[in-house]
Amino acid sequence: MNKLNILIRFDDICPTMDYSQFKKATDLLDKYNVHPLIGVIPECQDEELLIEEYHSDFWNYIKELEKKGYKIAMHGFNHVYDTKTRGNINCGFKSEFAGHSFIKQYEKIKKGKEILESHNVYTDVFFAPSHSYDDNTLRALSKCGFKYISDGYSKKIIRRYGIKCVPCRTTGVPKIKNKGNYTAVFHAHEWVRSDKAHAYNELENLLKKYSNSIKDFDIFVDQPQGNYAIQNIIEKVTVFYLRYIKSKLSYVKHNVLKL
Ligand SMILES: [Zn+2]
Questions:
Q1: How far apart are CA 119 and CA 57, in angstroms?
Q2: Which of 148, 183, 233, 238 has the least CB density, counted as fewest CB within 10 Å?
């Protein structure tokens, strides 16, 4: 592994997604011969992702991407938030998984995996909608044969309940220094929004500047695991900062200091 390693992740891949925006992404990724991790929703029922007519060739398309070197992850089950729990690491009180019983989560994950496998898509990588998961999610994933999640605020990979938690420390593109492991997250369907259009340029800049440091998932995760106790503290401190300090600092900056 090099000093600097970057994983590119695309979320919210489903048969009714915005294909034209995602094509913009794949064209750019092709240009730089980069293979991202893509999060496929097994049975999407999220109305925000009902953008195009259902593409009946969706699963063939996914297999084509896989053949090209893309890594497929399971991204939730139906992408519908049905609890008001925030889970282990995120700030918002909405989740598809956190707060549900182990059995309920196990059933969702098992069913999602079965749907993927019915289309010949096999994966041991998962990430939850809105980064929202709890210990029961990890236990259920482990029982269903998953090996990785792309989530968590540790700095190095740690193992919880047999699942390797590959940190994903920002919701978009992280600030990249000259060494370290980073995951950059993109939602192509959001690029049509004026407040999110810049994310396409961020992808382009990332590819231009760092194409040699961008790794396929299987290579990216071949990095030393961190010390659990230390990494657990890093994650807990980060979660505390994001939940209780960051918003107060930003309030002071905007409303008191008027910066
Ligand atoms: Zn999502």
A1: 11
A2: 233
How far, in Å, from the CA of 185 to the mean position of ligand 1?
A: 10
Ligand 1: centre distance to CA 11 (Å) = 5
Q: What's the pLDDT band for 1 if we cut at 50, 70, 90?
A: low
Helix 102-118 to helix 135-143 angle (10° resolution) is 40
How many whole angstroms from 40 Cα to the centroid of ligand 1?
Answer: 9
For residue 17, the CA-to-ligand 1 centroid distance in Å is 11
Look-up of token digits 């889970």: 87
- Over residues 114-131, the pLDDT tens digits come to 999 999 999 999 999 999
H-state helical runs in the chain: 19-31, 58-68, 102-118, 135-143, 198-210, 217-220, 228-240, 246-251
Protein fold of 4-226? TIM Barrel (3.20.20)
Instruction: Quote the ligand 1 centre to 79 CA distance (angstroms).
Output: 6
pLDDT in tens, 122-176: 999 999 999 999 999 999 999 999 999 999 999 999 999 999 999 999 889 999 9
Output the CA 252–ligand 1 centroid distance in Å. Answer: 31
Distance from Cα 130 to the centre of ligand 1, integer Å: 6
> Could you tell me whether strands 4-13 and 37-40 are parallel, antiparallel, or unpaired per DSSP bridges?
parallel
Query: Where do the structural domains in the chain lie, given as residue ranges?
Result: 4-226
Can you tell me the distance from the alpha carbon of 176 to that of 200, in angstroms, rounded to the nearest whole number?
A: 17
